[in-house]
Amino acid sequence: MQRINKNVVLGLLTLTSSVFLLFQLYYYKYYLSPKNGAVFPKVKGSKTGQDTSQWHVVRKFLGLVSTYHLHVHLIDPLVLGLIATDLEQLRASPEGSYSECRYFCAPRYFTTFALLDKTWKLEAGLFRAAERVGFQWLKVQSKDPRLEGMEDLSGTEIPLHYIFRLANHAVHLVAFYERNGNYLWHGQLRLKRHTDRKFVPFRKLQYGRYPGAYEKLELQSVSLDGLTVQIPKEPSHFLEERSQSRFIECRYREARSFFQLYPDDTSLDAVEFRRKAKALLHLAAVTLNSLGVRFWLSSGTCLGWYRQCNIIPYSKDVDLGIFVKDYKPDIILALQKAGLPLKHKFGKVEDSLELSFQGKDDVKLDIFFFYEEDDHMWNGGTQAKSGKKFKYLFPKFTLCWTEFVELRVHVPCETLQYIEANYGKEWKTPVKQWDWKNSPPNVQPNGIWPIDEWEELIDNQEVFPA
């Protein structure tokens, strides 16, 4: 009797194991196998034949991060573009009203989310839980630029990007960090030598080709395809920001090399000038940003950022550039109301416009307006005593963000070409005596203002020497 019972038990165990093995093979083939695609049950209410495998991957990911109390929000450009079109309807119907899988079933390789300020301590647990529900994951990290400075380069690394892959779809989680200039930053996705290049099609990622800088976000909850997600409050504005978000770090390594050759001026006068120039730049930035006017560091201020990561103490002014197409008549009045009286105004909007404002203690704010031609850009200059006009030529450039004196500010992306146009190939060598009419290699004569127009075009509070 005992022998029969043992045989029965062994038979049952064998049968159970076989059934479980067959189930695993079936599950892998029809649910997880990349060859066949992830065939999940259709989302309730979705159209017949619609592929919802991506929806299931996103659902699993959201459930996973929710368990670990991670607050993520959607930044996927494709999905946000659809949301921007439907935003009013989504706000009117928070629970969602579409009967089909509209947002998370569109064909793509990735769905992208963001994580603000990666501070949670349970990362290893998250990865183990991800593996238990079928995800494979990849973490990309690099040095923390917030800890870099003139003294040394910190070796501390921070997570920048996470990728969670399941079958034929992956979730890209981008880590955003707050920087000194009161903005959000994400790093570049640089694969290290040992990384599996075939893990996902990295070149199709929407974020990570360059570092990016963004305004701080306001978020809202919406229901998309039956899933509750956080999104930027103004998706269209976020997408516009994304298209212009490229960020360039200050070159601390090169700056240290520069100061080894040319020791920094740490005199009381130099320290005080830099303090005043920094305050002036911050005031100008607040004022111009309030008007929605794009500007960038130009001339000596741009050179100081690029060459030595600081304000040049003997420059005696702050230089900004503005595209003339972005000119607004309110600029002058707004800066005057901010406590910066107009020092001079040369030219006109159509030709060679230049503004200068008086800051505290002889620190000037010079604003140069740039004009675009077919193959170059230029800004103008005017000699007050003679009415002579000058033109400064630059190769065409685009704008990137950087951080300078604790401020998020634009600089030309093609910075080296911009600097070389203005200061020549020897820009690394300090030049304390600078003649704005003759020293720049990109200056050329541009005629003379008619005498009968001087009163209108040369509004000068002082006459500069010839």
Explain briefly what this protein structure is.
It is built from eleven helices and 20 strands. It has helices at residues 2-32, 53-67, 77-92, 123-132, 235-243, 252-261, 268-291, 299-308, 330-337, 415-423, 454-457, and strands spanning 72-74, 110-116, 136-143, 157-166, 169-179, 183-186, 212-214, 219-224, 227-232, 296-297, 317-323, 342-348, 351-358, 364-372, 377-382, 388-394, 399-404, 407-412, 443-448, 458-460.
What's the total helix number? 11
**What is the residue-averaged pLDDT?**
88
Give the terminus-to-terminus CA distance: 120 Å
- Beta percentage is 25-35%
**Helix fraction bin:** 25-40%
Q: What would you report as the Rg, rounded to the nearest angstrom? A: 30 Å
- The structure class reads alpha+beta
* Spans of at least 5 consecutive residues with low confidence: 27-42, 45-49
Principal-axes geometry comes out as elongated
The major sheet is characterized as: 9 strands, mixed
Q: How many strands in all? A: 20
Architecture overview:
The chain is an alpha+beta fold. It is 31% helix and 27% strand. Strands 10, 11, 12, 13, 14, 15, 16, 19 and 20 form a 9-stranded mixed β-sheet that branches. Strands 1, 2, 3, 4, 5, 6 and 7 form a 7-stranded mixed β-sheet that branches. Strands 8-9 form a two-stranded antiparallel ribbon. It starts with a helix and ends in a 6-residue tail after the last strand.
